[in-house]
Specification:
Elements: E1 6-10, E2 20-26, E3 33-34, E4 39-44, E5 49-53, E6 58-63, E7 70-72, E8 76-81, H1 84-95, H2 110-114, H3 145-158, E9 170-171, H4 173-182, E10 197-198, H5 200-215, H6 248-261, E11 266-274, H7 276-287, H8 298-312, E12 318-321, E13 326-329, E14 335-337, E15 339-341, E16 344-346, E17 349-350, H9 358-373, E18 387-391, E19 410-414, E20 418-424, E21 427-441, H10 447-462, H11 466-470
Helix pairs in contact: 4-5, 8-10
């Protein structure tokens, strides 16, 4: 197969300005035939999970990275044979079925067997690269073999026999980062993990020889070097601790919340509201033919109440332009709805929510929630929000002090709706009550404006007929 007959599909920027994405799942394997537009894998960016289609026809030659790998945008992730090479590639996969046990004499040398691994990755996983000339199984090595080979190669180089040609050491990304932080060259580390993989303990052990001379008051004679004292290995009790890598949506959310909390001066105000009439209206709308098949719940009316309050107080719908030192008032509302998903918290928004009727708003809310639950929210759906609602009441809590979504001026937290004793028409009666919390950027919104918005939302929920007169 000629080089020009293999097309390399690179990780695209599926959002705006994203730099990396994690491969969640491969839908194809080497030897599979693919067509233009076929989904070959699902990746997770800092904003959402996205399925990637291949842009040409051919036969999968190699998957460059296993599932769970984070890949930089612009890096090739899959090789596809196209044209005449595609026809020649398919039979190769069938012509060399894997024998039950390959003879030891036919086993490839360790360097040949491992050269198919991507740099810095773990040993071969399901769906990894396939050699074109053979599919024989690599014989199992004894546990000490990789360490002995690496030790011998390192010792040969240290004894002045010239540079030794060897592959890039195998290590997981966290171990590579640890080595970089400690200034350890992984090429000098003797691996102790399976298949010659360098572990955290190996890196820590390698630090001791490098630091020992600095700690000794006098250098030992060259002929009788003092033995290095291994540094104590840092280990974690996996039965008592679980370590979860922070990446994808969770990593982006953490960075955004830290940036928002320490950039925008937050102010939060609270109000407790009798929403008994709103709950009755929800039940009436569920029976209305105009809302047949639509999601009707308290969140729908709360969203509409916030939109009306923004119309009455338009200055609250703004953003802060740091570069220009200007306040940008938006004449549209992209209403964000915070959604908890298995991949973390995301905030998709309903575009131009201010222009939607109540049935249209109900339809948009239903689509937003369903898409988020399926993990199919697109990056575009999470961009351009102006204000947000977070419904913490679904978790049974009364309220909270929400942090602003970056670039927005306000966020409304809705607490649990509970039956409570309430003074109504001069008498204590059981009423449906909730607590609202409005956080806002005090650079944009002063106490008076924030109070007016929150009071308007509360007034509408207490007397939902005001939706008709104020809207």
């Amino acid at each position: 197969m000629t080089e020009g007959s293999v097309r390399e599909f690179k990780m695209p920027d599926v959002g705006e300005g994203l730099t990396e994405a994690e491969i969640l799942k491969w839908y194809v394997q080497p030897g599979d035939t693919v067509t233009d537009g076929q989904i070959v894998c699902e990746v997770e960016t800092a904003k959402a999970a996205v399925e990637l289609p291949i842009p040409y026809d051919g036969v999968v030659r190699e998957l460059h990275f296993p599932e769970g790998t984070t890949v930089d945008v612009g890096t090739s992730i899959i090789a596809v044979a196209v044209g005449d090479a595609a026809a020649a590639a398919a039979p190769v996969q069938e012509a060399a079925p894997e024998p039950a046990e390959a003879p030891a004499a036919q086993a490839p040398a360790p360097a040949e067997a491992e050269e198919k691994k991507p740099e810095g990755r773990q040993p071969v996983l399901v769906g990894y690269g396939v050699a074109t000339s053979s599919t024989r199984r690599r014989p199992r090595k004894s546990p000490g073999a990789p360490a002995q080979e690496a030790s011998a190669a390192i010792q040969a180089e240290m004894n002045g026999h010239g540079p030794v040609t060897r592959e890039r050491p195998l290590a997981k990304p966290p171990v590579r980062k640890l080595a970089k932080d400690l200034g350890v060259d992984l090429a000098t580390v003797v691996p102790s993990g399976p298949d010659g993989v360098i572990t955290r303990e190996d890196v820590h052990a390698a630090v001791a020889p490098a630091t020992a001379p600095a700690e000794a008051p006098e250098a030992a004679p060259a002929a009788t070097p003092a033995p290095a004292v291994p540094a104590p290995a840092v280990s974690y009790d996996t039965a008592r601790e679980t370590r979860i890598p922070v990446k994808g949506v969770r990593k982006a959310t953490a960075a955004a919340m830290v940036g928002s909390a320490f950039t925008a001066p937050h102010v939060t105000e609270f109000v407790t509201v009798d929403v008994t009439r709103t709950m009755k209206l929800v039940e009436e709308l569920k029976q209305d033919k105009e809302f047949t098949g639509l999601r009707v719940n308290p969140l729908l009316l709360i969203a509409k109440a916030l939109l009306v309050a923004i119309r009455r107080n338009p200055d609250v719908n703004a953003s802060w332009d740091e570069a220009a030192q200007e306040i940008v008032v938006k004449h549209y509302v992209n209403l964000g709805i915070a959604a908890a998903t298995p991949r973390g918290l995301i905030v998709p928004n309903i575009k131009d929510a201010h222009a939607k009727t109540l049935p249209q708003l109900a339809e948009s809310l239903g689509e937003l929630v369903s898409t988020a639950r399926e993990g199919k929210t697109s990056p575009a759906a999470m961009q351009g929000g102006t204000v947000t609602i977070t419904n913490v009441g679904v978790f049974g809590v009364d309220t909270g002090t929400p942090i602003l979504n970056p670039g927005e001026s306000a966020i409304l937290a809705v607490g649990a709706i509970k039956l409570q004793p309430w003074v109504h028409k001069g008498k204590v009666k059981p009423r449906q009550v909730t607590t609202l919390a409005l956080s806002f950027d005090h650079r944009l919104v002063d106490g008076e404006l924030g109070s007016k918005v929150l009071a308007d939302v509360a007034a509408i929920l207490e007397q939902p007929k005001r939706l008709l007169t104020w809207a």
